[in-house]
Amino acid sequence: MDASFCVTALEQALARFGKPEIFNTDQGSQFTSSEFIGLLTAADVRISMDGRGRWMDNIFIERLWRSLKYEEVYLKGYADAAEARSAIANWISFYNLRRPHQALQDAAPMTVWRTGMTSSLPGLAVDMTLRLDDACASPTCPQLQQNQAA
């Protein structure tokens, strides 16, 4: 892995948004390189790195990215960002609505979620009130900061 892309992205982010108090990454070689660490140190940014084995915390999203890359992105040569955005959105819709998942007894994730805990797939659905088919309702969307009264 080459750190130059990450170093360039970090330089641009620092120039555009200023320095954060703390920067968290995993222990990938691009983030542990002397260039990347040196840039953060020179900017007086505290560094936090996830410990070994923390990849397990992200196993589901890592599996999603792997599937996306091997089933969609690596197979296509997008003409531009708009084409990539459209194709990836279509793949994510397919992944959630139609693609069978072995861990879900060959059901699609949205099918399992919609039928919930009363389905024929007990224990496989996530018990939450979050509307997964409405991205704006998801807590992963940027939230407006509310003023806190002191």
Report on the structure:
This protein has 150 residues and is mostly helical. The chain has 2 domains: 4-52; 57-116. It is built from 6 helices and 2 strands. The chain has helices at 4-17, 29-32, 34-42, 59-71, 81-97, 109-115, and strands at 22-25, 46-49. The radius of gyration is 20 Å and the shape is elongated. The model is unreliable at 127-148 (pLDDT under 50).
Keywords:
43% helix
Summarize the structure.
The protein is mainly α and 150 residues long. The protein has helices spanning 4-17, 29-32, 34-42, 59-71, 81-97, 109-115, and strands at residues 22-25, 46-49.
Overall spatial form: elongated
User: How far from one another are the termini?
Assistant: 46 Å
Number of strands: 2
Described by strand count, sense and barrel closure, the largest sheet is: 2 strands, parallel
Task: Count helical runs.
Answer: 6
Q: Which class best fits the helix and strand makeup? A: mainly alpha
Give helix % range: 40-55%
- Strand ordering within the main sheet: 1-2
Radius of gyration: 20 Å
Estimate the mean pLDDT confidence: 77
Oligomer: single chain
Low-confidence stretches: 127-148
Order of helices and strands: HEHHEHHH
Strand content: 5-15%
How many domains? The number is 2
